[in-house]
Amino acid sequence: xxxxxxxxxxxxxxxxxxxxxxxxxxxxxxxxxxxxxxxxxxxxxxxxxxxxxxxxxxxxxxxxxxxxxxxxxxxxxxxxxx
Length: 82
Fold this sequence. Notes:
By secondary structure, the chain is an alpha+beta fold. The chain contains three helices and three strands. It has one domain (about 10-70): YefM-like fold (3-Layer(aba) Sandwich), CATH 3.40.1620.
């Protein structure tokens, strides 16, 4: 059976156990696919890449909210009213 591995670098769980930080470093800032019996079990994502993904997801969610509200009436308020 074939699997779609969504990372350029893959490592086995055994390799991860032997050298966790080396496995993360092998990805050079990108995710590393961790394989269990040649099947992707999970992805090891560096903190900076994870934070970037979360920021992008938040932007997508905010854009969806803005798009949904695009036709709503505008309510004008002053700073004093807030």
